[in-house]
Sequence to fold (554 residues):
Amino acid sequence: MIRPLIRIARQLAALAVTVILGGVLTAALVRNSPGFDSDERLMDVRLDAQSRAAILAERAADHDVLRFYTRYVNAMFHGDWGVSSSLNTPVRELIRSRLPVTAEIMAIGLAGGWILAFAFALAAVRGSWWSRLGGTLSVVLLSVPSAALAVLIFTARGPIRAIVALILFPRLFDYLRNLLADAYARPHILTAQAKGLGPMRILLCHVMPVCAPQFLALAGISASMAFGAAIPVETLCDLPGIGQLAWKSALARDLPVLVSLTMLITLLTQACNAVSDWTSSGLKGARP
Amino acid sequence: MKSPRIVGAVFLAILVAVSFGAGLFPKYSYSAQYREFTDAAPSLRFPLGTDDLGRDRFARLLYATRVSLLFAAAASLGALLLAALLGGIAGYWGGWCDRLLKRGIDLMLSLPWLFLLLAARAVLPLNASPVTSLIVTYALLALLGWASPARVVRAGVRSFRDSEFVLQARAEGLSEIRILIRHVLPNLRPILLAQFWTSIPVFILTEANLGFLGLSAGEPFPTWGSLLRDLQSPLFLHAEAFAPVIAIALSVCCFRLLSPRGGVQA
Fold:
């Protein structure tokens, strides 16, 4: 009972350390970005010497690197994610309004990619023709840049929201096919087949429990893959999501948005991986 | 060598020869403008037509092929050196060094590459020259691409760490650094070679996506990624604008055919 708790506490501590490290790194990114020391208020000719001195004194506080990092990371953990320099809107508001769009694209992409990859992988295990077809499709899709794939589907008036699924499919197919092939070759499954159990029963009762831990680990990674794929898709199709926001911020050198997004994505990805780790280790422990 | 690998090798050799050979002819300049032929359709003079600035698309594609293949290979080599160094140290000495690297690898592998590259690329000054931006882009790829090969190298080094020839070398009084560099790492050559061939297509595709988003080399320098920017206005698309996509897809396929089994993808 105590061992799993220690394991969870250790993983939570690692997660916290990663997020704090991410915060310090992003603060370093802001601190060393071009134009950090300039303040456009100083260009206002209406300001007198006293006001200019006050602004300079305010900026001087940021020259103490340690104090700057502490203040920046502290503000971030208190929900003050700063204001976008290019869109002049609080970063938190920007992320809140765009998150549902990306979440929808990712959810459809993940569901579609997994269904497609699992169906092809299952068929590939049973027949070499399907294996060859899935393999060819996977190689072709892997060889085309995701941005170009998005353009092709967009130009052909295909389903825009399914693009992420097509990008994920080849990345999942190879793993799933190998995992399923390995599971179907196990002696207890061969015995079950020899005893005449139905294919669905073998899949659900014997193959899935064997593969579940690896599937869960892959699920954690595929969420990160889906976000990476969403960036060019949102940019090309003008979908107002987090990916498009990241791209626009990169072009505008809008570091407050980029650092907040980096923190958020690090946290979400690490949390996803931690959850899939816990679940898969739980399943491994439960298996006789 | 099996036949698919021969096909891949021959195609890549032809691609490299043509792209490098084209540089010998002054006609094929990537920046020369033919202002009276802007947006021209394919013809004998311009096999892939011209772009909106009157530049020969075919010449630019050949130059981009040279740049992308050369820099992707260089980035792959850079990533591999970093992976060999870090993975070798962590795998050989173990302890906190190994735990730290493992944590770092997990973090690097779980974060979306494209997003990391967007964030890192944004820190660069706006007035970077085209060549600088190109070098920086591929250097970033090398810096972010070490994680996957490092994991493989670490596992390989760990398997050799307690092998008999290492024990014998240790008994003969060789220093640990010498054992690692002269005895362990050379045994990992097949793994490193597999990783090298596997990383090149990954870097080519990542640069293509970055270039499409306008974050690779600046104008007028062509790379496969920057040529893909022509696809950004889908309403005015010509078939010849897809030529870089075909070049990328074919070369990535060839690299995948060439890469030995066992290469882990980034």
Remarks:
- The two ends of chain A are 18 Å apart (CA to CA).
- The mean pLDDT of chain A is 80.
